[in-house]
Amino acid sequence: NLYAVVQGEKIFTLLPPTAAPFLHERCYPPAHFERDSATGALVAVPDGAESQNVPWVPMDVAKPDAERYPSFAKASAVEVRVKKGELLYLPAMWYHQVAQAGITIAVNYWHDMQFG
User: 3-class DSSP state for residue 62?
Assistant: First the structure.
């Protein structure tokens, strides 16, 4: 996965595959966000019964809740800031959480690896 920032800054919290036992990954029904026409708020809308569950890490790995997820202390997270003109290579199977600072434009290229 290649991630290039054109304008602004993206903040990646990265965890190697060896952190998997401490991330409390579970399968959840897929959903997407839609804007509520009455309030303007974003609301999660389930994708439908025919959709397969997807693996998801239910915590904020950049600011983990130590009481709720005590084993996460055994994981080694790395924060990387990618700024305008920079490119990040994200290795296969690394867990990542992404945030941005201000208005940001970025381009992502994903290459699906074939394992096995």
Answer: coil
Q: CB–CB of 8/105 below 8 Å?
A: yes
**Neighbour count for residue 17 (Cβ, 10 Å):** 10
The 8-class DSSP code of residue 38 comes to: T
pLDDT in tens, 51-99: 899 988 999 999 999 999 999 999 999 999 999 999 999 988 899 999 9
Structural element, H or E, at residue 11:
strand 2-15
Residues contacting 32, CB < 8 A, separation 6+: 44, 45, 47
d(CA 35, CA 44): 9
| 0.85 exceeded by pTM | no
